[in-house]
Structures are given as C-alpha cells and as structure tokens.
Design goal:
- The complex is a heterotrimer.
- By secondary structure, chain A is an alpha/beta fold.
- Chain A is 43% helix and 11% strand.
- In chain A, the strands form two sheets. Chain A has a four-stranded parallel sheet with strand order 3-2-1-4, with helices on both faces. A four-stranded mixed sheet of chain A has the order 6-5-8-7, with helices on one face.
- In chain A, a hairpin with a 5-residue loop joins strand 5 and strand 6.
- By secondary structure, chain B is of the alpha/beta class.
- Chain B is built from 25 helices and 34 strands.
- In chain B, a hairpin with a 4-residue loop joins strand 31 and strand 32.
- In chain B, helix 19 crosses helix 20.
- The chains are: A alpha/beta, B alpha/beta, C alpha+beta.
- Chains in contact: A-B, A-C, B-C.
- At the B-C interface, strand 7 of B face helix 4 of C.
- The structure holds flavin mononucleotide, iron/sulfur cluster and FE2/S2 (inorganic) cluster.
- Flavin mononucleotide (FMN) binds next to helix 4, strand 4 and helix 15 of chain A.
- FE2/S2 (inorganic) cluster binds next to loops of chain B.
Chain lengths: 428, 900, 154
C-alpha cells in the first residue's frame, strides 16, 4: 500500500529539511514541469488524476484551475493560496503534513502556481500552528535559497514569491472567499459567488485557493502520472486520503490510506476500536459540519460519493466518534455553540438563527426544553439550509443537528420528558 | 426588454437589473433591507427571497435572493410561493429576536421600513423566549441620534457612510450576533453627509436629532415639495411643519439632481425658519411703537415709495419671483444685483459662457456618470457638498465599469464590484487652493493660488489643442502635470470640468471654458459646471442687473433716494465701508427680509418676509435648472408674506390702489419670460394655481394626520377653517386627491404598505430612474445650441510673492460659510472657530505660531483672528474665512497687510 | 507611539502586500506580541501609520478572536472547548483550572499571571483534551498534570 504523502513523515522526528526532501525525490516534479510541461499540460494532468479538493467540498482540482483566465484578460497578477487554516473542529490532518514535510507543500504550491501562471503565493496558516509556522518559514527560506522560489526559478524565467501569513483566529478564515478578505487585512466576511475567486479573488485578481492536502498530492501526480494516482484509490476519486479518528477510541490518530477504505477498518483497525466500556453511537465522518453516520454505516467506503450517498459528506475525512456515554444533545450543543460563535455576523439566518439553535439545545440539556423547542430545531435545520444563507457555514452547522434529530430523536425526547439530561451522571 | 414571469404573469422589465428591482419596478411588494437603490445588492439580510423555477415542469423551485439574481429573459419566478413567503417571515422573526419592540417611543415609528416589512411578511407571533442582547448607545454629535438596540444588522449604514460617501469614522465592530454599528468611540460624526443615515437606516438606530427636539410623527406633519436654499446645487427636499414650526427636512428624490442624498447643511439648516431672530412684524423705526400692523405699514409705504428716486436691490437668495417683482416695481434701470462689482463680473462671465459658449452644463447625475472630472479652484466639498458626493460617485463608477466588463459582473452587485475594484479609482484632478477631503479620491491634486491654477488649466487646454496659448515660464513640474492631466482627459469619453465663483477669479472661469471646449472639439462629451454662492445666484445673475457698486456710484450723485433691499444682507457681499456709505446716503431704506441682519438693522422700514418654507418660489441652480418650491405652511402672523407678495402690494400702492390685483407665481413667471428671453420656459417649472386632478387639490397632510379637531383645543373648541394659500394646487388639509401626485408635486412619500421614505419606489418610473411623469424642473440653458466663436487667449502671470503684502484668498466651510446655517443651533455648534491661515514659512517669518492673534488690514477692513499654520499653502498667501458671521466681506485676490 | 522594532516588523509585512493597509492584521498581531494587548492608543497609532481611520482598525481588531482589546495576564491559557475535547471531557480540565486559578473563562487572575480563555479547536483532536499556554501546547491533559504545568509560568 503506497502512502506517497506521508511515507517520509515520522511523527516525533523533526520535519524534512530541503536536503532530506530532495533525497526522497523532492522537487523532481518541479524540475519535470520546468523541463517541458506547459501550464495547460499541468492542469490537464491534475484534472485527469481525478484529484478532488481535500478542503471539504471535493471539487475536481484540475477543473477548478481551468477557470483561471490564461489570456491577457487574467492580467499580469494572479495568486495561489494554500489554505492551511484547518479550524474545522475534529480536523488535524493538514497539521501532520505541515509539520512533517513542509517542502512537499511548497513544491505542490509552486507547481500549482505555475499551472495558473501565478507570481505570488501565500500560505494562510492558522494561528495555533506555531510549530508549523516555524518550519514553514525555514523551508520557504531554503526554497528561495535553492532557486525553487524567487525571480528565476530553475533558470526558466518563471517567477514566484511565497509568503507565510498567519491568521488571528476565526473559523470563517478557512472559507476561501473570507480567507481572501482576511489576507487583504479586512474582516473575514465571505464574498458572493459569482464572481468566483478564479476570476476575481485576492486584491481583485484571479486566485486559486487549495487545501494543504490537495496541494501535497500535486508533486506525486506530476511524478507518477494520473493513472498511477487513480490506481492508489479503492474508489473512483483519485489518490490516497488522510483519514483521522478522534474520540473515545484506543488509538486516535491520522493515517494516509487509499481513498475509499471503510469506516470499520478505520475505527476498528487503525484506531484500535472503542475504548473499553464504550460503544460507538455515532460518527461525524469529516469534521464538525458533516452529518452523523451510525453503526449501520460501518462498512461504508469513505470516499466522496459513497459518503454522500449515505446522507453525509466525506468533508475533511477526519472523523469524530461519539460514544454511548456522551449525550447527543450536549454533543450537538457544543457544536452549535462553536458555529454560533464563529458566525461572521453578515447574513441574518446564520447570525440570528445559530444563537437561537444554541439556546434551544442548552435549554434541552438543562431540562427546561419543550416539544416545540424540538420542532423549532427541526425547522431551523431547513431554514439554515444551503442557498438560504450567504455562505456554507450555517448549512454545515445544520448537518450534525439534522442527522442527530434523525438518528437520536429519542434522546431529544427524553430530555423533554425527564426534564433533565439523562446522560449527565455518566460524566466522571 | 426582457420578459420575466412572476407568479405566472409575464412582465417586461429593464435589462441588466436584478429580480428585486424588477419586482419593485412592476409594483410587486417584496420586502428587503440590505439592498438600497443607490448602494446596490450584497445579499446579506436574506429578506428578499423568491423562488426561481427551471422551467414550466419545475414546481419545487430554488430559493434565491432576488437582489442577487440577474434578470434573464424568460426566467420564471414566484414571490407568492409558500416556501418563499415562509422564509421571508422567518427572516423577520430572526431580526426581531433582539429588536426592542419599542415602536411607541421610537422616532422612526410610523415611518419605519422595519415596521412595514414586518407587516408585509405577516410575522406577528414571537417564539424566541430568551434574553435580548443590549448595547450602549453613542453620542454622535448634534445631528444624528443613536439607538443601537434597534439595529437589524443590515449593514446599510456602513455601506452608505464609508463606501458611498467616503466617510471614515463609522464602522461595524465585533462579530457573530454581536455586531455594533457606530464610531470607535463617542464623538461627532465627521462626514457632512451623516444625516442621510437617518433615511438609509431602515429602523430607528440613526435618527434626526434636531427633529427629536420638537418631535412630530410623520403622519402629523404638513409637508410640501421644496428646494434646498443652502447652496447653488438646489437639492430637492421635503419639508414638514406642525404648530407653526418647521420640524424636519428630508431628501426629495430627483434623478438628475440630488438622487437619494442631501448634505447636512441642507438637512439640518432649516431652523432659521423657527428662529427667535425672525422678523415677524412690520417695523417702522422711530415711531413710539415701532411694530406696526399691515395697514399702518402700507399707509407709510405709500408715502415713501412714491419717491421718484426709488431703487431696488435684489438678492441671490430670494426667489426669481421676488427678484423679478422688485425689478418690475422699480424699473429695470433702477434695479441692482446687490453683490459687488467683482462678483458680478465673474458671475456675468459664467452666465455668458453657459448661455452662449455652446457647452453643456452637466446635472449631478451626469457628473456621476463622467469618466474624468477636473475641478479648478472651487472648494466643492465646502461650497457645493452634494456635488462633491457626485464626483466621488464618478471616480467609483468609472473604476467599477472597467472591472465589470473584465469579470462580467453587473454594477448592482456591489460587494463583488468593490472587491474587484479595490483601490482603483476613475480619473479626477482636484486643482484647488487648499487641501480638501476630496483629494483622497483624486488622481492628481495641485494646491496653489487661483492664477497658478488658471495657468495650469490654460496649459492643459493648450496640450489638448496646441493652437491655444501656453502660459510662459511654466515650471517643468507644472508642464508635466498639465501633460498628464491632458492625457487623462484624452483617454476619457465623458469629461466634466467644474469651477465656480468661489475663489473670486475670473481667469479661472475662462481657463475652465478653454479645457471643456478643447475636450469637446475632440469629439468627446464635455460638461462645464460652475458653482455659485447662493441658492438663486444663477437666477439673479441671469437678470444681468448692475452691481451694488453701480448703485453706490449712483446714489453718491443723487440724494433723496429710497431703496428697497430684498432679502439681502449687503454686508455679506460688499465691504463694510461701502455698505455703510450707501445706507447712510439713502434717504429711506425699506428692507424686506425674514431675519434680522446688519442691513435690516439700518433699515427705516422692515417688512417681514416669508422663508422658503412659508413661500412659493423658484430658484435656479448652478446648471440653470429652474426649480419651484411650494409653501409648506402659512405663518401664524399674516404679516409674514412672500417678498413677491409684498412687492406686488407696493406696486398697487404706487398705482394708487390700496388693494391691487393678486398675482400667482405661475403668472409672475410668465411675465418674466416675456421681459427676459433668457428665462424662456421657466413658467413650466411651477404648477398653475388652478391645477387640479379630477377637480381636487393635493393635500399637504397625509391621510393619517391626527388631532386636527383637537390640536387647538386649548385656544378654542371649534375647528378653524382650513387655510388656503390660493397660489398652488395644494391644500392645508388631508382631503383632496389621494392618488399618485405628479412628480413636481410630491409632498411626502407614502403608499399603501409603505409608510417610510422607502415608498419612493412607487413614485419612480424605474428603480433609480426618473420619477413617474419625469423629474421636476426646467433647464434653461438647454435651448442654446449656439457654438461660440471664441476661445480665451490671455493667460495670467505666475504668482509672485510681494514683500510685506499677502494675497487674500477665501477659506470656505460647509457649516460656517452659508448665511442661514448659523441660525440652526446644531450647525452653529459644528461651525469651526474662524481663523486666518498662513504658510509655515510665513509663520516663521512673522514669528507667530498656531493660535496667535493676527490682524488683517485691507484698504477697507481691519480685523483680528487667531492664526492657523498650514502646510498646504504657498508663501505669500493668507486665507480668511468666507461667509462667516462677524467677518466682513473681503475682496478675494487682493493684496493685504498682516500684523502680528 | 509605535516602537522602531514594531514599525520595522510592520513594514516587513507591508512589503508582501500591494498596499500598506492590507498588513493591518499582521500589524495588530505585532503590537499585541509586544504589548500583550491592543489598547485604544495602539489602535490610533496603527491607524496613523497605516493611513486608515481608527474605526477601520478597530473594526478589524474586534472581529478576530485572538486580538485582545482588553489587557490580559502575562500568560494566556487557551483551553480547547471544541467537540473532540468535549467528548474527552475538557470540562474536567476547566473545572480544575477554575479551581486552581480562581477565575472563569474570560477572566484574569488577581496577580495578573494568567488569563483563561476558551478556544475553538486547537487541531490536535487525537490528543484531546488540549490547551495552549502562550506558545506551548499541552495535550492528552489530565487534571493531575495542571499543577506542574502552571508552575512553569509562575
Ligand atoms: C466555514 C468554512 C470553513 C472552511 N474551512 C476550511 C479550512 O479550514 N481549510 C480548508 O482547506 N478548507 C476550508 N473550507 C473549504 C474552503 O472554502 C475551500 O473550499 C477549500 O479551501 C478549497 O480547497 P480544495 O479545493 O483544495 O478543497 C471551509 C469552508 C467553509 C464554508
Ligand atoms: S444601524 Fe440601521 S442601517 Fe446600520 S445595520 Fe443597523 S439597521 Fe442597518
Ligand atoms: S435585500 Fe436581498 S438579501 Fe438583503
């Protein structure tokens, strides 16, 4: 089983420096494209590989790049941005890549930038990743020094600057258009689409935003070809995927596995199964803004299409396991508290609806909730659905709630009937 | 025109707009908050949701925000769809979770967009059972009141204040459901356009603080269409009265002039109408009891005005009707303009250019749509504020137009356009005496004395058309600048050149003409606008009367002269010594005015004039647009009359009859047309007094006017007979024609379901377009398609300092320079302390620093003020406050002495 | 007044963006790093240096979670309260911290040593519960470890 993204990453050991990276074949993909691939060739190779964005939405990466105007209409300035904000609760996969092998990301970024002919690139890193910030700064410096970045990359005349930007803490910054505003020094409010960032993005110029993991796949696709990349996967989506499991399992962690391993393999094999005394009750398969799956889905293949067919989303591929001692209402309340706090305050449904949802859940937890409150929650899952709000934050927030109401409705009802949280005594 | 299908009915709608505009445009009530016709769409509030269907088979549809959805030919949508309606109701419920429900004590109550939209969506029952969040309010100065708890977070205030008006000190703070709209700390709002917040905010967060001091509900106001009297732009306003006091001023939409916004001088400068300094009773000086009644006055006047040596002095702030009536009374040869020879000379030149120069004078809308604007010398921020706002729109729109074509995004998609445009701006050059807030939007700025600005302007014209003279000895830097400005104008399609009489320089006026004409000869659209000092300066100047100096010369030779001074404080426009001499020489002085001034203080007979709010009248704005304003209310004292009414009474007295024929404004305007060809067409600006709709008059009071039978119950129990002015198609009651009034006769915006000013959409032909039936006003210069055969060829010498002398130039201030604004307490409060400004070098030479007293000595005046030291002034120049109370009128561009 | 060091750091950030004011968030962080928080005075100073209005600076400053507009203690404890830590009982850590420090979320100890704040996901959900003190990350927390950890900052 191949693990191209992580085979050289050994948690606990320092990150690969430039020399280490080059010894493992690093920057050969960059050399390859510089030696004779046109930007269009690169775009095509990535499109053929069926690489889907690892930031959560799962859009074909090569296709996304192809919307960038490559003629003079695009203007002289374009930007490439690595989205390293990773603030989705339950998600910790990009950190592994950033702290383990920063040059892999840098190389991926240079290739991606070349593919759209961008001359400036930024890494938007979340504030809390202090270790990653340090090794990225050093690695960018090394890359400049080695001629992989700067005025005249590998003597080809292609120019690319790369800067590290760290955020100031807001989940919204991960949303690609809000990220642009944050990079412009503004409040991280999302932007209306269209126009898409590919056409009018950072500072009004054509821009591509890609997730860290997405970009880390790029050098391997260039080196080994689209067919190879597709063959890594157990499903039609190309490549491997970083999966993660957190919660009361024996060995929480993150692993690179073929796209499409089953949930059972992940939880039982890689995460070592549930901790003693706990049963699995529900799983958020790809971060806080995905729908619950339950025991009945254990044999589900974890790829974009299969998870969607089961009524959820692969999202970031890092799952949160909810055990039977954890109150689903409390669990969802915690999530809604997060989303309500992180709402940017721009559109009405999200700004006003999420705090209401949070309050309803809290009163249920406290034992003062009513049947009508559950109805109101149900209604909010519809009103805050996709298209009704300005961006995807609130619809994402509704995913765990609506599925909790579907799978764990009994638990909600018990809170009303018993006028208390039936799980509360289970906390140690 | 594309066809769209709304709830199965096809409508023809305007291409390029969005679904919300389309729905409102065809008269469908669709609620909205964050969209504003002048600010465009951002899709934040989610209130305007409708369903869009793929095709006829699709019955589930997709919920979209109508303000963010472009019109597509054949698109099927539903406003009535159950899901869409339910969602809109839900949005209101969310907005109301934190709203204080304090309508009974809220100033917005009864004219509140939030109330209207709440009713429109049907939301009535509260399900949110938790605590509301609350905020602390801020002190924002004397104009705007702040009540943050009422906020529904539509973001309109910041979008208007920052994005549209370019203000910096209002913003949004915090995040999630704790967003606060205000300043970073308590303090006076800096923008002179802040009052529009009261209309832009759809609820009671920002309200008119001056109204609060004599609060009246909208439904209790008697209102009429009026025209702002605070500068030469002539913004259209609505003015409202109750109990004999003017209560507030609102914007009255005019698609070509002020659009949706006015400035704070216009909105809050109305209080002179209520001021204690009003002349409310005729006065005959030196009687035992000076205040007399009308009969005594008329008897007295009969003797005085039958003097053969009767002259009249007109006024740039009095109406066309009043000025003409005075001229008619005293005869053309005895009628004078009342302003100085210098000012008369410049204004005459401006009128000459506009009448015969073959160059179009642009409306504000045209300025907004220009793709290059150049200002020469005029301090538009302070002398014509709303024009400055239009220039800002021009630089923003030009940049946006470019962006829109590149990314094919419609102009109404406001946030997307701004995100694309970023810091790009359209072309704007501000060549002015001093720094100004407009510099921030300009591509090129240049600060110097008028002669140097004129030289630069002549150089620009010469670069555009080499036959024109290039001033000699231009510094290299100036030549390069001229080259760059000319280049920018060559690249543009619609150029607007703005200048004015503000700097007191005739050569600037000529230079402005040369540029505009040179641009026009290149086949581009050129517009030339001149700012004048007063609301009817253009009307007065078009009468081409001789100056005050000519009147002075005349009476020096004659004794025994009786003068009638019409609404003119001569000391504002002429030197103290000259006016003193003039008034001392006159045998008898009759002053007709509404407020006591230095001039009325010297009059022998004082005749109380009505203010604009108590008058019918016409003023002509900078573009030569004759605009009629209607009486809002009848003064309680019948001795307060429109000046023209008094003047016609005097006319009858002269003819020997005590009670002559009454004349209505439209008749007077007809007479003007026949005696002055330059006014041809003006009579169409006023509705005939006998205009009726289905035989009905138009009510000044809305259908909900309350207390009519009780409001005077403390005086008498029987309801007084409604007043009747007889001069206009309006009545002072709530009865009359209830349909849509013709555009010039809209006394308030109010349609079923729409109680706030947002009802305006019902009065427009299309959103943002002209009012139904066409916008009011008649442009008088448009008749001229003559092409002048002249260019101006003599260029001024470069400025050179003189030892021991300083060049005197004006400093205007938006809240100090206008005559009437000081009578509004709030604006008086905002008026800066007058000071004298000099350059840093001069300060060093004179050995003075900021705050020191300096004395200015001209050949006619001498006064002292504290000094301000400025970095934007050249050496050898001194700025004195223009138009300020207690500062004498000064001759700009003359050399004066300074003493430390 | 901004220090020379701060100005140098801000200039460096500003050189990476097309216009100075785009460096605002970095500038706020630079000032905060030096002074612990962003005072009204710092807001005005930054506004002047970046040629924007204080309102604009404050609008951005108050938007972000980790820009402090009020003074904080010499050490800032960010305890993750997001979902994985919730499942792994961060509430016990919180209870213990409250007990030891005598402050709740949003408060600063009387001696000014610690400010305790909740924080959204620290990105180490596999090692929950987690907290960060200044730049130091602590994972797999047990209440028993807190004394030793806090000692380091006293
Ligand atoms: C509220 C919200 C938060 C998001 N946060 C992240 C994030 O932290 N990291 C990320 O890569 N994508 C995040 N996304 C997805 C991005 O908007 C975007 O789709 C992604 O960065 C694109 O990269 P990809 O095409 O490589 O997946 C977020 C989206 C939303 C709506
Ligand atoms: S203050 Fe008024 S205009 Fe501003 S966001 Fe609130 S409701 Fe809208
Ligand atoms: S008016 Fe359309 S979303 Fe606000």
């Amino acid at each position: 089983m191949e693990r191209p993204l992580t085979k050289n990453i050994h948690p606990g050991r320092p990150p690969l420096n430039l020399k280490d990276y080059e010894m493992t074949g690093g920057y050969s993909a960059l050399r390859k494209i510089m030696a004779g691939m046109s930007p269009k060739d690169v775009q095509q190779a990535v499109q053929d590989s069926n690489l889907k964005g690892r930031g959560g939405a799962g859009f074909n990466t090569g296709m996304k790049w192809s919307f960038v105007p490559m003629d003079e209409k695009g203007g002289p300035t374009k930007y490439l941005i690595a989205n390293a904000d990773e603030m989705e609760p339950g998600t910790f996969k990009d950190r592994l890549l950033l702290e383990g092998n920063p040059h892999q990301l840098i190389e991926g970024m240079i290739i991606a930038a070349y593919a759209i002919q961008a001359n400036i690139s930024y890494i938007f890193l979340r504030w809390a990743y202090k270790a990653a910030a340090k090794c990225l700064e050093e690695s960018i410096h090394e890359a400049y020094h080695a001629g992989y970045l700067g005025e005249n990359i590998l003597g080809t005349g292609y120019r690319l600057e790369m800067y590290l930007h760290t955020g100031a803490g807001r989940y919204m910054c991960g949303e690609e258009t809000a990220l642009l505003n944050a990079l412009e020094g503004k409040r991280a409010m999302p932007r209306a689409k269209p126009p898409f960032p590919q056409v009018s993005g950072l500072f009004g110029k054509p821009t591509i935003v890609n997730n860290v993991e997405t970009l880390c796949c790029i050098p391997h696709i260039i080196n080994n070809g689209a067919e190879w990349f597709k063959s890594l996967s157990y499903s039609e989506d190309g490549g491997t995927k970083l999966y993660g499991v957190s919660g009361k399992v024996n060995k929480p962690g993150a692993w690179e596995l073929p796209m499409g391993v089953t949930m059972r393999e992940l939880i039982e094999e890689y995460a070592g199964g549930m901790k003693n005394g706990y049963q699995l009750k529900g799983v958020l398969p790809g971060g806080a803004s995905t729908d619950f799956l339950t025991v009945q889905h254990l044999d589900l293949k974890m790829d974009f299409k299969s998870v969607a067919a089961a009524g959820s989303r692969l999202g970031t591929g890092t799952m949160i396991v909810m055990d039977d001692a954890t109150c689903p209402v409390g669990f969802v309340h915690n999530l809604q508290h997060f989303f309500a706090q992180e709402s940017c305050g721009w559109c009405t449904p999200c700004r006003e609806g999420l705090p209401w949802v949070e309050k309803l859940l809290l009163s249920l937890e406290k034992g003062t909730g009513t049947e009508e409150d559950i109805d109101l929650l149900q209604q909010h899952t519809q009103w805050l659905g996709p298209g009704n709000t300005f961006c995807a934050l609130a619809p994402g927030a509704m995913e765990p709630l609506q599925s909790a109401l579907k799978y764990f409705r009994d638990d909600f009802d018990r809170h009303v009937k018993e006028k208390k949280c039936p799980y509360h005594h289970n906390h140690h | 025109m594309p066809t769209i299908i709304i709830d199965n009915i096809p409508y023809q709608v305007k291409a390029g707009s969005n679904l919300l505009e389309a729905c409102l445009g065809v008269g469908i009530d669709l609620p909205y908050f964050c969209w504003h016709p002048a600010l465009g769409s951002v899709g934040a509030c989610r209130q305007c949701a409708v369903k869009v269907f793929k095709d006829e088979q699709d019955n589930s549809g997709r919920l979209v925000m109508s303000c963010m959805e472009a019109i597509k030919d054949g698109i099927r949508i539903s406003v009535q769809d159950k899901g869409a309606k339910a969602f809109r109701e839900q949005v209101i419920e969310w907005l109301m979770t934190n709203h204080p429900h304090d309508c009974p004590v809220c100033d917005e109550g009864g004219s509140c967009h939030l109330q209207d939209m709440t009713v429109m969506t049907g939301h009535d029952y509260r399900r949110f059972k938790y605590k509301k969040r609350t905020y602390v309010n801020q002190y924002l100065g004397p104009l705007v009141h702040h009540e943050m708890n009422r906020c529904i977070q539509c973001y309109r205030c910041v979008r208007y204040y920052r994005d549209y008006a370019g203000g910096h000190d209002l913003n949004v703070f915090g995040a999630h459901n704790h967003v606060y709209f205000g300043r970073e700390k308590d303090g006076i709002l800096e923008s002179p356009f802040s009052g529009n917040l009261a209309e832009v905010c759809p609820t009671g967060v920002f309200t008119d603080k001056t109204l609060k001091q004599h609060y009246t509900r909208k439904w209790d106001l008697t209102s009429a269409p009026s025209v702002c009297q605070q500068c030469s732009v002539g913004c259209n306003i609505l003015a409202g009265e109750r109990y004999g006091q003017l209560r507030n001023v609102l914007n009255r939409y005019h698609s070509e002039v002020n659009g949706y916004f006015i400035c704070d001088r216009g909105r809050f400068g109305y209080e002179h109408v209520n001021n204690v300094n009003r002349i409310r009773q005729p006065i005959i000086r030196n009687l035992t009891v000076e205040a007399v009644d009308e009969t005594t006055l008329l008897t007295h006047l009969q003797q005085v005005i039958n003097n053969r040596n009767l002259i009249g002095i007109g006024s740039p702030r009095a109406s066309v009707e009043s000025n003409y009536s005075l001229m008619h009374l005293v005869g053309k040869e005895n009628y004078y303009s009342g302003i100085s020879e210098d000012a008369t000379f410049i204004e005459r030149k401006i009128v000459d250019i506009l009448e015969n120069g073959g160059i179009h004078t642009p409306s504000l809308k045209e300025i907004e749509n220009a793709d290059a604007v150049i200002v020469l010398g005029e301090d538009i921020w302070n002398t014509a504020p709303v024009m400055a706002l239009s220039v800002r729109q021009s630089v923003m729109k030009t940049a946006a137009r470019e962006a829109m074509t590149q990314i094919s995004t419609p102009a109404w998609n406001d946030a997307a356009v701004r995100e694309r445009v970023q810091e790009d701006r359209g072309y704007f050059a501000n060549l002015a005496i001093t720094e100004s807030p407009v510099d921030e939007w300009s591509t090129h700025t240049y600060h110097s004395v008028p002669d140097n600005i004129a030289r630069l302007a002549f150089a620009i014209a010469s670069k555009l058309r080499p036959e024109l003279p290039l001033p000699e000895g231009m510094p290299e830097a100036d030549l390069q600048l001229a080259e760059r400005v000319a280049g920018a104008l060559e690249n543009a399609k619609h150029v607007v050149v703005i200048s004015g009489s503000g700097p007191g320089s005739e050569t600037l006026v000529r230079a402005a003409y040369n540029i505009a004409r040179a641009v026009q000869e290149k086949g581009k659209t050129a517009g030339l606008a001149f700012v004048l000092p007063e609301s009817n300066s253009m009307g007065a100047a078009m009468m081409k009367a001789p100056s005050f100096d000519k009147a002075l010369q005349r009476i020096r030779k004659e004794n025994n002269t009786t003068v009638i001074i019409l609404e003119n404080d001569l000391y504002r426009y002429n030197s103290t010594t000259d006016v003193d001499q003039f008034l001392d020489t006159c045998k008898s002085i009759i002053a007709i005015d509404s407020l006591n001034t230095l001039t009325t203080g010297k009059a022998h007979v004082l005749v109380p004039a009505a203010t604009f709010a108590e008058s019918d009248g016409t003023s002509i704005n900078y573009e030569g647009r004759a605009q009629h304003y209607y009486q809002v209310f009848m003064p309680a004292n019948p001795c307060i009359k429109e000046s023209w009414k008094w003047l016609w009474k005097m006319k009858s007295l002269m003819a020997g009859s005590a009670n002559g024929q009454e004349h209505h404004p439209d008749e007077i305007l007809k007479q003007i047309e026949s005696s002055y060809p330059q006014f041809t067409g003006i009579s169409a600006s006023a509705a005939p007094a006998d205009f009726r709709i289905y035989g009905q008059l138009l009510p000044r009071e809305p259908h909900r006017y309350s207390g009519r039978t009780a409001m005077l119950a403390n005086i008498g129990v029987s309801e007084p007979k409604p007043l009747d002015d007889g001069d206009s198609p309006f009545t002072f009651t709530m009865e009359g024609y209830q349909g849509l009034p013709p555009a010039p006769l809209i006394p308030f915006y109010w349609r079923p379901g729409w109680n706030s000013v947002q009802a305006l959409n019902k009065y427009q032909q299309e959103i943002g377009g002209p009012l139904r039936g066409g916008d009011p006003g008649i442009r008088l210069f448009d008749r001229n398609d003559k092409v002048a055969s002249w260019w101006f060829n003599d260029t001024p010498e470069a400025f050179a300092g003189r030892t021991g002398k300083w060049l005197l130039l004006p400093q205007y201030h938006v809240f100090g320079s206008a005559e009437m604004s000081r009578w509004s307490a709030a604006l008086d409060f905002l008026t800066p302390q007058p000071c004298i400004s000099i350059s840093q070098q001069d300060a060093a030479q004179l050995g003075v620093s900021e705050g020191h007293m300096l004395t200015i000595e001209t050949d006619k005046e001498r006064f002292s003020l504290p000094v301000a030291v400025r970095s934007d002034l050249v050496q050898g120049v001194v700025l004195a406050p223009a138009g300020f109370q207690s500062i004498p009128s000064l001759a700009w561009g003359t050399w004066i002495k300074i003493m430390a | 007044m901004l220090t020379e060091e701060e100005i140098k750091a801000i200039d460096h950030e500003a050189s990476r963006v097309p216009h100075k004011k785009a460096a605002l968030i970095d500038a706020l962080k630079i000032v905060q790093q030096q002074r612990g928080w962003v005072s009204d005075e710092s807001v005005s100073d930054l506004a002047e240096y970046l040629e924007i209005s204080p309102a604009e600076v404050d609008s951005v400053a108050t938007f972000y979670n980790l820009i402090f507009r009020r003074p904080v203690g010499s050490n800032v404890i960010l305890l993750c309260d997001s979902i994985s830590c919730y499942v792994m009982h961060y509430e016990e850590i919180y209870a213990s911290l409250k007990d030891k420090l005598g402050v709740a979320f949003g408060q600063t100890t009387e001696d000014g040593l610690f400010t305790l704040l909740p924080n959204a996901c620290l990105g180490c959900c596999d090692r929950a519960p987690a907290m960060m003190i200044n730049h130091d990350l602590y994972t797999d927390l047990k209440p028993e470890q807190l004394d030793t950890i806090l000692m380091k900052y006293k």
